[in-house]
Amino acid sequence: MLSDRRQRVLSALIEEYVARALPVGSRTLVERYKLGVSPATVRNELSVLEDAGYIVQPHTSAGRIPTDVGYRAFVDELLESGLATDELPYSDTVEELKRNASELDDLIERTSVALTRLTDCLSIVLAPSVLALRIRQISLISLSVHRALVVLVTEDGQVLNRSVEFSEEVSSDDLAAVQNLLNDVFAGRSLTEVRDRIDLEAAEALGDPLVRLVLEEVMYCLQESDTGRAHRIGVSTLLRQPEFSHAQALLPIMQILEDDAVLLHVFDDATAGIGPIVRIGHENNDEALSGVSVVATQYGRGEAAGVVAVIGPTRMDYSKVIKAVRLAQSALQDS
Question: Which stretches make up the Heat-inducible transcription repressor HrcA C-terminal domain (predicted)?
């Protein structure tokens, strides 16, 4: 546990390093921050912090920079003091996002853009699993006697569609009958719940190959739409950070983040609590993420929940990023 004075010195050093990305010396801290102690005391406190592993001197003639341990102490103090829970000065962004978005996908995209703009980092918003969303309505639209369009509307307003081909002619009346049957099965239920009530064998037992065919297409439509859930914005913004000025440094991170299944694993612990989780450098399970920090939280409830996250250098403005993630959570929470 750091004393109040060492916490102030550490916080000042981190704030200075976040702002300028240059090693910080004792003279800089004394001149720019009102620490209320002499330069000799600051030098002594820096030595103690270095011995304890909170900061490190990259070169013998240079100032100090924070370690992952130092950032962790800084972030924990931010969270405990409540400084990371205050609203951003532009909190009206929440209402603006909701007002201008036409549907959930649009809101997620706008929220991702806003997150990157507010944090200068990479933003990722994982949409809720379609498989957990309840279906409001299924429509079968005849395109010809051999082809129809299956349109699904979820209760949160998402519209999914998939075309289906018929080997034999199918009349509009036949399609209407199948549509009514499927709405009886699906309306107000998620795919997970439907699987508990009816499976493909049950549909076949109805003695109607057309029902089975369309039911298969509905299942495929939902499963296909459950891929590509991640909205990623801000790779170019991240490249402007000194840590990633060479694209090669960002390549291992992007390889990890390209796979939605991997992303879900990365953000597993974000769904465990109501507040943002902050993982710093080597606290991340994957070695490819050891040079970045991840701030993430869940929005929504239960199985129909998504994740909003920011990924940036360990030298990120944690207070601002945590506030921005909370803002995005608020925008998406009840959408």
Answer: 105-322
pTM of the model: 0.78
Name the nearest CA neighbour of 291 among 232, 327, 246, 234.
Answer: 246
148 neighbors 137 (Cβ within 8 angstroms): no
Q: List all residues 6 or more positions away from 293 whose beta carbon is below 8 Å from its beta carbon.
A: 71, 278, 279, 280, 281, 311, 312, 313, 314, 316, 318
Cα–chain center distance at 152 = 26
Residues 162 and 217 in one domain: yes
pLDDT tens for residues 258-267? Answer: 777 677 778 8
Q: Residue 237: which H helix or E strand, with range?
A: helix 235-239
Domain that residue 172 falls in = 131-225
Length of the chain: 335
Give how many domains the chain has, as a whole number: 3
Show the tokens assigned to 31: 């001149």
Q: Do 175 and 205 belong together in one domain?
A: yes
Confidence of residue 86 (pLDDT cuts 50, 70, 90): low
Q: Would the pLDDT of 203 be above 80?
A: no
Tell me the percentage of the chain whose pLDDT exceeds 90: 38
Going 283 to 289 to 290 to 293, the CA torsion angle's sign is: negative
Q: What is the pLDDT of residue 205?
A: 46
Domain assignment of residue 77, yes or no = no
